[in-house]
Amino acid sequence: MFKDKTSLMMTLLKGRTLIVLVLLLIFFSVANDNFLSTNTLLLLAKHVALYGILAIGMTYVIITGGIDLSVGAVVGLAGMIAGGMIQNGVTLQFAGVTLYFSVPMVVILTIIVGAFIGWLNGIIITKFGVAPFIATLGTMYMARGWAMLHSNGATYSSLAGNEALGNTGFSFFGSRIAEIPVGALILVVIAIIAHILLKKTVFGWHIFAIGGNEKAAKLSGVKVDKVKILVYIFSAVCAAIVGLITASQLEAAHPATGETWEMNAIAAAVLGGTSMAGGIGTIGGTIVGAFVIGVISDGMVMCGVSEFWQMIIKGLVIILAVIIDQFQRNMEAKMALQARNESKD
């Protein structure tokens, strides 16, 4: 009987995020008749896409036992980099000319900037032994400052481009295909790729090995530093993509875009079952976690909940998710110990 209850509890704990999502959908649909309308669900999909892409990169980082606080700032910087190239081009002072790039080139260059910040995070953490929290906190301020300096704090308010300059079409990333937001489609593609990398490749096994026991992974021949650097690059690239999508949706770029979004990414990953202790996590769980964060955010807005209360509630959600995760890990350890004892008997 005890085993049955324990097994049932473990099943509920493992499916807790999905259960919470269903309960939230029921609650907000009762609280607001329009919550499950088509327009609301499409808006939710746009928001979940942003949280989800950020959270996928964060999941990789957390599985290795790290954290990336710079992703929100990278979102803002990516938007400013892209916005500046579209609106003002790139001026070469020594040649006295201004270059304007096509949208595909703008996207590539922006992602390269994001990758550079991720590489910088990885180098600081692996080569200089700086704790991930401190390293990414520093690059967060650097990226945010760079975004502010890019336009002296001003907004790039018109990103439609100019046909004569060959840089139109940036609004595509904020548009819809068959009524589905392009951002949501990008989320699906990134999620599939991230899942395959994590579950079906040696690289993914190395990520889990580092989070489970970094010293043992190193002794097993895993190139720990290289894997960590690649993980932080991936996280920053995800953030840069979110910055591009956000700027495209607004057709404007502001340096403060993405503030505190790293908290949404962390919350989505942890809610989805990614352990802050490292070594555990799934992309599917993270996507469900992103939906929970999106439903909470949009649901509270539609119900007229103060933004200040929203911050408090999100903070509580993160704390509770970590507490429940720790409780689940303790239960699994006890069950494993009990199974070993019974096998000896």
From TrEMBL:
Its main location: membrane. It is found in: Cell membrane. It is a multi-pass membrane protein. InterPro entries: ABC_transp_permease. GO terms for molecular function: transmembrane transporter activity. The chain crosses the membrane at residues 49-82, 94-117, 123-143, 180-198, 229-247, 268-296, 308-327. The keyword Transport applies. This is Sugar ABC transporter permease. It comes from Anaerovibrio lipolyticus. The lineage of its organism: Bacteria, Bacillati, Bacillota, Negativicutes, Selenomonadales.
